[in-house]
Design a protein that fits this description.
- With 236 residues, the protein is an alpha/beta fold.
- The protein has a six-stranded mixed sheet with strand order 2-1-3-6-13-14, with helices on both faces.
- The longest helix is centred in the N-terminal third of the chain and has 18 residues.
- The chain binds ribulose-5-phosphate.
- Ribulose-5-phosphate binds next to helix 2 and helix 4.
Length: 236
């Protein structure tokens, strides 16, 4: 499918952010490989360096990323073999400037992404500048991964949190199924989220919720691609 001119520009911003972040990867590292279109540029950049002799082990966050990494000759492993990851580089749907907190999961890989992030000593995020927000929830719903059994009841619990859950469908109009075999409810609020920390706790206590797309306190660096190059935000 061909891209429109704005999509080509955004894709270029994603690419330069990913290429810059890839420079932090050095010989011997175990690297968490994120998922999505921006993370795909990261995998490309690392694949190129592996062909030039870089020695790393990648731990992919989705089946799609695993296939991509394999195709490019990046050695991959899993958390069983490598429970501690030196650096994970992943994309995001929204980045809150003040905190570097994130919404992730619009690609549907949030569960494995969060497990890998939690096992990582550092996490870099690669985004184009359209993903930067003052407050989380400004543009995107919060993806909530749920057990398919009884999802309607889980959705009713989520409505009690003053959000509107919508069952995610795939391109064929069937319920989306994650790599873990779960469904996703996209939980939208009419306004930016007042307290992401409170929502994080509330979502974690809903029976039937496996994980959700609020990534609070994970990102240590954010590489932001835009028309003037790459800007770096770091968490102090
Ligand atoms: C997948 C994710 C992605 O990192 C996020 O959706 C950003 O994707 P893209 O780089 O394609 O915009 O969290 O679960």
């Amino acid at each position: 499918m061909s891209m429109s001119a704005p999509e080509i520009a955004t894709d270029q911003w994603k690419r330069i952010a990913a290429q810059k972040a890839a420079e932090d990867v050095v010989d011997g590292m175990v690297v968490g490989l994120g998922s999505g279109t921006t993370a795909a540029h990261l995998v490309e950049a690392l694949g190129q360096r592996v062909r030039q002799g870089l020695r790393i082990i990648g731990v992919p966050t989705s089946e799609q990323t695993a296939a991509h990494a394999r195709q490019l000759g990046i050695p991959i492993s899993d958390l069983g073999e490598h429970p501690s990851i030196d650096l994970t580089i992943d994309g995001a749907d929204e980045v809150e400037t003040r905190t570097l907190d994130l919404i992730k999961g619009h690609g549907g890989a949030l569960l494995r992404e969060k497990i890998v992030a939690a096992a990582s000593r550092a996490m870099s995020i690669v985004v184009d500048e359209t993903k930067i927000v003052e407050r989380l929830g400004s543009h995107f719903a919060v993806p909530v991964e749920v057990v398919p059994f009884g999802w309607q009841t889980t959705a009713a619990r989520l409505r009690e949190l003053k959000g509107e859950p919508q069952l995610r469908l795939d391109a064929d109009g069937r319920p989306f199924v994650s790599d873990g075999g779960h469904s996703i409810l996209d939980l939208s609020f009419r306004a930016p989220i007042r307290s992401a920390a409170e929502l994080d706790l509330a979502l974690n206590s809903v029976v039937g919720v496996v994980e959700h797309g609020l990534f609070l306190g994970f990102a240590s660096k954010v590489f932001i691609g835009g028309p003037n190059g790459v800007k770096l935000l770091t968490r102090s």
